[in-house]
Amino acid sequence: MTIGTNDAVVDAAGQSATAELAHDPRTFLETVATELRNWDMYLERLQVRAAARAGSAREQAEARISELRGRRNALSQRLGEVHSATEEGWTRVRAARDDLERSAAELQAWFEQRRES
What we know:
Elements: H1 3-21, H2 25-51, H3 55-81, H4 87-113
Helix pairs in contact: 1-2, 2-3, 3-4
């Protein structure tokens, strides 16, 4: 894992922890919005790593990144919906965040297993 990718993961994790601890909706929304920007940087860095691969490894990496980007976009959509949210809306945002984080960990493990030489 490169330093830049590590930094993005740490930033996203820090924002995630802050969001989890938020007691008011405004802080939660602001924190998740920042978290989404960190995920964007992380995805860009992963895309650069994928582009350095050849053949099927590149295709696999890009497919996994695309799936993760879809989960990021789902979180963004849920965040947009939650501005006038009920408790169900908050639950959906939290579930989307958890899904994104789990998928990112799986993708990171995949990259680590196929570490560049």
